[in-house]
Design a protein that fits this description.
With 272 residues, this protein is of the alpha/beta class. The protein has ten helices and twelve strands. α4 links the parallel β4 and β5.
Length: 272
């Protein structure tokens, strides 16, 4: 493609939306063609640059999703499950690459996104950083190498405005550990403990969520056995790394066949 691919940012007023807009505007490989917000939002009709506290950019914040998607080659979407499912269907109609960083998606949501991916490229990941995706691979390998004498616990920490738990990244890591063990995560997941719970169930994978302050994202995978522990840890200190990963995914998807992909595909880390 000779012209830089055009990108739409959904939920542009949010913390990630603004970060994504800034990263696209600074990119020499992508161009921002539209910025979207929900109907009734006070940014609608305003110039995006001025709404973000800067100079005018000539891009008016809109709620007209079909019109925006029709002008785009990629949609970057860190919003909410209900919105993301609707965006997936419209992005598929526009044949635009849909990069999804939304977390908290239900099984029904995922089924609808998978249906949209039959017609267009969808890149979906609970975390778009290189470090976390490497951690996912290592977690899978370590889990495969250790038997159920090694308990697995996943601890995650995020800022106090995060609305879902466990985090999408924690669930990615849990899925990786379960795959390494050859089991289904839903069959072995323990999500927090309270009261008289009894002894830990052998082979289960525990999840624990911490919420406080402005923590960007911290994740630990703990493998614990009698007399020893292995602790794998990733700390994110700058939210921009997620935005940069999303832009990389938007570019990567431009020449791909319709289907559902993840950041392991984008980063060339997929095994098998």
């Amino acid at each position: 493609m000779s012209e830089r691919p055009g990108v739409v940012i959904t939920g542009v007023s949010g913390r990630m939306g603004r970060m994504l807009a800034r990263e696209v505007l600074a990119s020499d490989r992508l161009r921002l063609v539209a910025a979207l917000e929900r109907p009734g939002h006070d940014w609608l009709g305003r110039d995006l640059g001025e709404a973000m506290g800067g100079t005018a950019l000539g891009i008016e914040v809109s709620s007209d999703v079909p019109e925006a998607f029709a002008r785009a080659q990629a949609v970057i979407d860190f919003t909410a499950p209900a919105a993301t499912v609707g965006f997936a269907e419209l992005a598929a109609q526009a044949r635009a690459v849909h990069v999804i960083g939304t977390t908290g998606l239900s099984a029904e949501d995922l089924a609808r996104i998978a249906a949209a991916a039959r017609h267009a490229v969808v890149v979906r990941a609970g975390n778009m950083s290189l470090g976390v995706n490497l951690l996912t691979q290592v977690t899978r390998q370590v889990a495969a190498a250790l038997d159920e004498d090694w308990d697995i616990e996943i601890v995650e920490a995020h800022h106090n405005q995060k609305v879902d738990a466990p985090s999408g990244t924690a669930l990615m890591l849990g899925e990786a550990a379960a795959e390494g063990r050859g089991v289904a995560l839903e069959a072995v997941a323990d999500r927090g403990r309270d009261g008289i719970t009894g002894a830990r169930t052998r082979g289960h994978i525990g999840f624990h969520a911490i919420r406080g302050g402005d923590v960007v994202g911290e994740h630990e995978v703990i493998f614990a056995a009698a007399g020893e522990r292995i602790v794998l840890r990733h700390i994110a200190s700058d939210r921009a790394l997620f935005a940069r990963g999303a832009l990389r995914a938007a570019l990567w998807g431009q020449d791909k066949e319709p289907g559902e992909y993840d950041m392991l595909d984008v980063l060339g880390l997929k095994q098998g």
